[in-house]
From TrEMBL:
Specifically methylates the adenine in position 2030 of 23S rRNA. SUPFAM superfamilies: S-adenosyl-L-methionine-dependent methyltransferases (SSF53335). It comes from Methylorubrum rhodinum. PANTHER family: RIBOSOMAL RNA LARGE SUBUNIT METHYLTRANSFERASE J (PTHR37426:SF1). The gene is rlmJ. This is Ribosomal RNA large subunit methyltransferase J. GO terms for molecular function: 23S rRNA (adenine(2030)-N(6))-methyltransferase activity; RNA binding. GO terms for biological process: rRNA base methylation.
Length: 282
């Protein structure tokens, strides 16, 4: 386990992932019925952008660091809950903090909602458990997120989301994301599933999306954000999320936000996006 998210926190991929996560959480919190958010690869929840790790890559400068200037009003309206979550965490922990997915989920939890955070790295799981020990709405599990997922769904609330955000250290993890999503949605057909992926080799992502398109019995979206031309499969030229059972508003929201992000976060003048329906409605 070599991957440390502290080197990458707040980069363009985190911006897309956390923005979509917040849109889904906002949708869930719009109804009074409690929900549960399961984060299978949670990390440590808070990152210091002044720390050595973040400074060594400087990745956040081309992510959250490019969001200071306002976007057009219709984009800002959709970005607002993400900006509010980041601001709330910064108000509590410091202006140079960037929230990880557990912190973002925690901001959205109401009294009856639950957050379950799974992390395999022993030190990181300990850090997260200590951080949230006093919050009875949250639980941290030191387990393998891939296998824990099966035991955690469907949750007692029967309402909520699962974020699958692996480090992609091993070959074939993109295909594993696709097969795990298919299996999970069969076990919990009404859950909202968000599967994050890096885009280096676009053909691997296309293959995973085609398998989902053919195998899914539930609607899904593929949301890609490209910040470089995908010419070199060794470079992280884009990022994306599969969202199964997306809130009915999400596709229209993505059509507004993704082009704005592609323009703002582009490197070398190339930015692009994709918002594609998969599954029975694709
Ligand atoms: N979701 C986090 C966020 O958005 O802030 C970032 C997660 S980071 C991309 C991936 C995390 O998964 C790392 O903290 C890594 O230690 C952890 N990890 C790696 N393999 C895992 C596994 N099999 N089960 C659970 N966690 C794992």
């Amino acid at each position: 386990m070599n991957y440390r998210h502290a080197f990458h926190a707040g980069n363009f991929a985190d911006v897309l992932k956390h923005l979509v996560l917040v849109r889904v959480l906002t949708y869930l919190a719009a109804k009074p019925k409690p929900f549960r958010a399961v984060d299978t690869h949670a990390g440590i929840g808070l990152y210091d952008l002044d720390a050595d790790e973040a400074g060594r890559t400087g990745e956040w400068h081309d992510g959250i660091g490019r969001l200071d200037a306002p976007f057009a009003p219709e984009v800002e309206a959709l970005l607002a809950p993400y900006r509010e979550a980041v601001a709330a965490v910064r108000a509590r922990y410091g202006a140079r903090t960037y929230p990880g997915s557990p912190a973002i989920i925690r901001e959205a939890l109401r009294a009856g909602d639950k957050g379950v955070f799974v992390e395999l790295h022993p030190v990181d799981a300990g850090t997260l458990a200590e951080r949230y020990a006093s919050d009875s709405r949250t639980k941290v599990l030191h387990l393998d997120g891939w296998t824990a997922l099966n035991a955690l769904i469907p949750p007692p609330e029967r309402r909520g989301l699962v974020l699958i955000d692996p480090p992609y250290e091993e070959r074939g993890e993109i295909d594993r994301l696709g097969t795990s999503l298919l299996k999970a949605v069969r076990k919990w057909p009404t859950g909202i599933f968000l599967g994050w992926y890096p885009i280096k080799d676009l053909s691997a992502v296309d293959r995973m999306a085609a398998a989902l398109d053919a195998g899914l019995e539930r609607p899904a979206l593929r949301l890609d954000l490209m910040i470089e031309r995908p010419d070199d499969p060794t470079r992280l030229s884009g990022t994306g999320l599969i969202v199964i059972n997306p809130p009915w508003t999400l596709a229209a929201e993505a059509e507004i936000v993704l082009p704005a992000l592609a323009e703002r976060l582009a490197r070398g003048g190339y930015g692009a996006f994709r918002c594609e329906r998969l599954g029975p409605e694709g």
